[in-house]
């Protein structure tokens, strides 16, 4: 099942939801069970040593997966994250990153997906396995 969501509609949602608005995500692409977000560099998300904090990658992956699910179930869907497993493969420094998520299986109770964040030059920075629970 696919719903017709516009980039502008999803962008408005991300800009108004408190848990995502502070990151200033930009919706770049939407597909059937897929979403790509850009995450601008913000000095406040820099950790000691000058690299991007891990929480930024994890939040980007979680939000990208949420948006990917919305492309299938609609903007009013209330599914929530039940697990997120992250592998940190590289680090970003003072650069925009991108996070792409895709739904692997949309079940009646659980939704499984993958997300990956990459640097400005395309190098893979993180890999995430994500499970969402659908409301009863």
Q: Which percent band covers the strand fraction?
A: 35-45%
Please provide the ordered H/E string of secondary-structure elements: HHEEHEEEE
The assigned CATH architecture is: Roll
Count of helix runs:
3
Q: Give helix % range.
A: 25-40%
**What's the end-to-end separation, in Å?**
18 Å
Instruction: Say how many strands there are.
Output: 6
Largest sheet: 6 strands, antiparallel
Structural class: alpha+beta
Q: Strand order, biggest sheet?
A: 1-2-4-5-6-3
Low-pLDDT segments, ≥5 res = none
Layout of helices and strands:
Blueprint: H1 7-16, H2 18-21, E1 26-31, E2 34-39, H3 54-73, E3 80-88, E4 97-106, E5 110-118, E6 124-133
Antiparallel strand pairs: 1-2, 2-4, 3-6, 4-5, 5-6
Write a structural description.
The chain is of the alpha+beta class and 136 residues long. It has a single domain, classed as Hotdog Thioesterase (Thiol Ester Dehydrase, Chain A), CATH 3.10.129. Helices cover 25% and strands 37% of the residues. It has 3 helices and 6 strands; from the N terminus they run ααββαββββ. A hairpin with a 2-residue loop joins strand 1 and strand 2 (34-39). The longest helix has 20 residues, at 54-73. It is globular and about 45 Å long.
């Amino acid at each position: 099942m696919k719903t017709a969501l516009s980039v502008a509609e999803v962008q408005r949602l991300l800009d108004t939801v408190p848990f995502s608005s502070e990151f200033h995500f930009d919706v770049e692409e939407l597909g059937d069970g897929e979403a790509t977000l850009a995450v601008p560099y913000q000095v406040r998300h820099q950790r000691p040593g000058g690299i991007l904090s891990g929480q930024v990658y994890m939040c980007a992956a979680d939000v990208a997966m949420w948006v990917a699910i919305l492309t299938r179930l609609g903007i009013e869907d209330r599914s929530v994250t039940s697990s997120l497993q992250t592998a940190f493969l590289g680090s970003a420094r003072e650069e925009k990153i991108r996070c792409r998520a895709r739904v692997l299986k949309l079940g009646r109770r659980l939704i499984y997906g993958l997300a990956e964040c990459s640097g400005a030059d395309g190098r893979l920075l993180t890999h995430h396995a994500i499970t969402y629970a659908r409301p009863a």
